[in-house]
Amino acid sequence: MKDATLCFVLHLEKRQILLGLKKRGFGAGKYNGFGGKLLSGETHRAAVLREVHEETGLRLDGGELRPAGEITFLFPFEPDFDHHVHVFVTSAWRGEPRESAEMAPKWFPLDGIPYERMWADDAYWMPLVLAGKRIEATFSFGEDNERLTGWSIREAALDHHP
Questions:
Q1: How many angstroms separate the CA atoms of 161 and 88, rounded?
Q2: 137 in helix, strand or coil?
């Protein structure tokens, strides 16, 4: 199972969220937050800072990253896709988002998140995270690696840190 990160960048004054259209690889064609696998010896926070910069050009303030939960994604028909993801949210960054080889960033209104163009699980847990909750969740996918076959979500203690 891959250990990974996911980060949502929020523009609080404009009530917007920055999402990226994945251009290649796992999840291509879907909007998502930014993140990825950890490098050897890398912390989750360091991975978020690196991945967001690589994918958007933005420099995040590491002290302003809010841990928002942990999610396990299970793909029984393709176990190589299994991920355990540490989710973060931030509203502190420097720079302007730019397209990378992997992601095309775009701002969306918080009340207009394109869930229909995202992973099937996102509509279940993202509203909780965006409301300031910390979650622990598991999602299982079907044979097509798209359809949800099961899930559990619970609110986690806010003082728990990865």
A1: 11
A2: strand
Closest-CA residue to 7 (of 77, 54, 39, 73): 54
User: Mind giving me the DSSP string for 35-103?
Assistant: --BPPTT--HHHHHHHHHHHHH--EE-GGGPEEEEEEEEE-TT-GGG-EEEEEEEE--EES-----SSE
Cα Rg, the chain, nearest whole Å: 15
List, for residues 92-136, the tens digit of each pLDDT value: 999 999 999 999 999 999 999 999 999 999 999 999 999 999 999
- Residue 160 covered by a domain: no
Asked if the structure places residue 161 within a domain, the reply is: no
Which amino acid, one-letter code, is at 116? E
Mean pLDDT in residue range 36-65: 95
